[in-house]
Amino acid sequence: MRYLSRVEVRLKPGYLDPEGESTGRALRDLGYRVSRVGVIKVYELELSASSLEEARRLTEEMCRRLLSNPVKDDYSFEVRELGKGRR
């Protein structure tokens, strides 16, 4: 079966986010009242697995092995079955 995993990777609290800080300053310069901007990486993965549980396990494994750095990143993910007709 085909599944879609949506993974969000963000910096752990206490780590500097220069891209988010720069974007926040630019938005404030444009007159927007934002107090904080954080950058989050989002990955969408289409994968084959025999069950939803296996798709979740594989997604977790990919997060730990490649998509995030356990020292500085936190991650979360959702997995859903792809409807028929979508490749």
Provide structural commentary.
This protein is α+β, with helices and mostly antiparallel strands. It has one domain: 2-Layer Sandwich (Mth169, Chain: A). It contains two helices and three strands; from the N terminus they run βαβαβ. It has helices at residues 18-29, 52-67; strands spanning 2-11, 40-48, 73-81. The chain has a three-stranded antiparallel beta sheet, with helices on one face. The protein starts with a strand and ends in a 6-residue tail after the last strand. 10% of the residues are buried. The mean pLDDT is 95.
Features:
87 residues, single chain, Mth169, Chain: A, three-stranded antiparallel beta sheet
Summarize the structure.
The chain has 87 residues and is α+β, with helices and mostly antiparallel strands.
- Supply Rg: 17 Å
Largest sheet: 3 strands, antiparallel
Helical residue percent band: 25-40%
Total strands: 3
Outline: elongated
**What CATH architecture label applies?**
2-Layer Sandwich
Q: Give the class-level CATH name.
A: Alpha Beta
Runs in which pLDDT lies below 50 for 5 or more consecutive residues are none
Report mean pLDDT, rounded to a whole number.
95
Write out the CATH superfamily name: Phosphoribosylformylglycinamidine synthase subunit PurS
Which secondary-structure class do the elements indicate?
A: alpha+beta
Tell me the strand percentage band. Answer: 25-35%
